[in-house]
Design a protein that fits this description.
Residues 24-150 form the RDD domain. InterPro entries: RDD (IPR010432). This is RDD domain-containing protein. It is a multi-pass membrane protein. The protein is mainly α and 258 residues long. It folds into two domains: 2-155, no CATH class; 164-251, no CATH class. 59% of the residues lie in helices and 8% in strands. The chain has 14 helices and four strands. It has helices at residues 2-5, 26-52, 59-84, 90-94, 109-117, 119-122, 129-137, 144-149, 164-168, 179-188, 191-202, 209-226, 231-234, 239-251, and strands spanning 8-12, 18-22, 97-101, 151-155. Strands 1-2 form a two-stranded antiparallel sheet. It has a two-stranded antiparallel sheet with strand order 3-4. The longest helix has 27 residues, at 26-52. The protein is elongated. The termini are far apart.
């Protein structure tokens, strides 16, 4: 498994900031699929027990309901979980995997649908043999569903946490006066977007002054479009301080000065 974790994909921003993503290997993905398969079995068993009550009316109706329920659950499980959990299922979450757009962009619903509909092809002839072979020969460890949907699966390994108190200390965070907007910000921001904020702050000293100003201007504009704070909360603060405030909201549940 350690060997799999060394396969990385590097995405660079126009400002020269590079983000390395650890690609999940076929073995780890297969284990996640086994967990998901067990989850589908449990859900399907529950549905079968519920459909059994239809046998009182008609055994044929009960059998048709069981078949239909299994089809909907087997297809809908991956679509629903990966969409609402932002690229994760139960198996992926337990093994710290996540589906992402291959360019690092936000995962779209049509991508989730395409990759899950093609699971049937990837699973042929048995135990994901087609999908496993595709992962082995693909430079980005993609099965056929990933290739069609332009997605990758990454492994989020345990990393040493940065010293947030040292990184974010300095000025009072005016965003803290608006808890409902803080909650909205946390809800709308993806894991990848939060990671970009943190990486930008951690690596700001590596940038030229002009590139640093441009980078934080772009990041600040992105979050201003996502959630609009009142003017009194943003007046007089630089773009970099705006991004610091966002990071403080996203990464720290406790804060000084309140």
């Amino acid at each position: 498994m350690n060997k799999e974790r060394k396969r990385t994909l590097t995405i660079k921003t126009p400002e020269g900031i590079a983000f390395s993503l650890h690609l999940a290997g076929p073995v780890t993905r297969f284990l996640a699929w086994l967990i998901d398969l067990a989850s589908i079995f449990v859900i399907s068993l529950t549905a079968r027990i519920a459909a059994g009550f239809l046998g009182v009316i008609s055994p044929d109706i009960a059998s048709a309901a069981v078949i239909l329920a299994y089809f909907i659950i087997s297809i809908g499980y991956g679509i629903a979980m990966e969409w609402y959990w932002r690229g994760q299922t139960i198996g992926k979450r337990l093994l710290r995997l996540r589906v992402m757009d291959e360019q690092g962009l936000r995962l779209q619903f049509n991508q989730v649908v395409i990759r899950n509909l093609l699971r049937f092809v990837d699973s042929l002839p048995a135990f994901y043999m087609v999908g496993g072979l595709a992962c082995l020969v693909s430079p980005r460890v993609q099965r056929l569903g990933d290739l069609a949907a332009n997605t990758i699966v990454v492994w989020n390994g345990a990393v040493s946490e940065p010293d947030l108190d040292q990184l974010l200390t300095g000025k009072y965070n005016s965003f803290r006066n608006y808890p409902h907007l803080e909650a909205r910000l946390r809800h709308h921001i993806s894991v990848r977007e939060a990671g970009i904020v943190l990486q930008a702050l951690l690596r700001r000293d590596e940038l030229d002054p002009s590139a640093r100003l441009e980078l934080f201007k772009e990041i600040a504009m992105h979050f201003k479009r996502a959630v609009k704070f009142p003017q009194e909360a943003t007046d007089g603060i630089s773009d970099e301080q705006y991004v610091r405030n966002v990071a403080d909201v996203l990464f720290r549940s406790e804060f000084p000065g309140r």
